[in-house]
Amino acid sequence: MRVLQSYIGPGPRTNPYIVQLHDRLAATPGVAVRGFSWRTALLGRYDVFHAHWPEALIERRGRLSTLARTSLYALFLARASVQGIPIVRTVHNIELPSGIGRIERLLLAWTDRLTRMRILLNEFTPVPPEAATMLIEHGHYRDWFARFPQAAPARGRLLFFGKVRRYKNVEGLLRVFRRLADPTASLRIVGSPSSAELAQSLRSAAGDDPRVGLALDFVDDAELVREAGEAQVVVLPYPEMHNSGSVLAALSLDRAVLVPDNAFNRALADEVGSAWVIRFAGELQPSDLERALAETAAQQGRPDLGRREWGETGRRHLTAYRIAIRRRRG
């Protein structure tokens, strides 16, 4: 089974979820996994295309680059359509990315029409009624992070980490934190903003509060483990949270998370232990930060990530690929 993945690499900055999945697939008998290149996509031999974030292949990077990438992607989809190459898609997000144009929307809709299997990371993902699906839970990061030393938590430390995007409400977190009266509390924002404008907005929101620290750049895994280790609570205030690798990264490092109250996070709390998934309703408030710090002041033990083991991941993906091929032929 020759499987072309939608990611390039993997490389040193590749999402650890992707790297671990790639390694599991490469070790699975019956699977030959290939990283993405336009040459392979257009001219190579493969049986299945596995898409993770297909919009990354056509995201805008200047007029000429955008024209070239959308043209190449359209040719790739035409080839998949004519030759009957099925697409398997892991549904990381349920909404189209913001800021894309009409052409990109049409290409993503075409991708959906060619998709013969959707891999779901949780049971709350909405899908078309006729869609074939398979639930393969997002694996943990404990093995991935085990090689790095972890620091002891600093009392009162709150942390946001990950790619900084406007939809993640990091600016709102900064404004709420500055209303927190506790002089012993502190907040770290760690991650690369999506634009220079957003970075400046974050600096403005932080103001001159000495309790706030900003590290607005890419951080490697060793630095991430250190930052998470020093945190008492990881705060991820996304207004709409469906899947989050950052939540599982924090739990893999034995740090409680403060997240919105929704069906996914309630189920996650039942799964790993309610003390590790603290939820807030509505808009984030200073009282939510105070409550999270109070509830984790003497926290011990580890969250239960038994459902997130990687052992069967490769075999289950191979099953999904085979079903996609059968559905395409049918």
Structure description:
The strands form two sheets. A six-stranded parallel beta sheet has the order 2-1-3-4-5-6. Strands 9-8-7-10-11-12 form a six-stranded parallel beta sheet, with helices on both faces. Helix content is 39%, strand content 15%. The radius of gyration is 21 Å and the shape is globular. It is α/β, with parallel strands linked by helices and 330 residues long. Strand 3 (48-51), helix 3 and strand 4 form a beta-alpha-beta unit. The two termini are 18 Å apart. The mean pLDDT is 93.
Key attributes of the depicted protein:
330 residues, alpha/beta, 6-stranded parallel beta sheet, 12 strands, 39% helix, 15% strand, globular
In summary, what is this structure?
Helix content is 39%, strand content 15%.
Percent strand equals 15-25%
What share of the residues lie within helices?
A: 25-40%
Largest sheet: number of strands, sense, barrel closure: 6 strands, parallel
Order of helices and strands: EHEHEHEHEEHEHEHEHEHEHEHH
Number of strands: 12
Mean pLDDT: 93
Tell me the number of helical segments per DSSP (H or I, 4 or more residues long): 12
Structural class based on helices, strands and sheet pairing: alpha/beta
Radius of gyration from the CA trace?
21 Å
First-last Cα distance: 18 Å
Low-confidence stretches: none
Q: What overall geometry do the principal axes of the alpha carbons give?
A: globular
Strand order of the largest sheet: 2-1-3-4-5-6
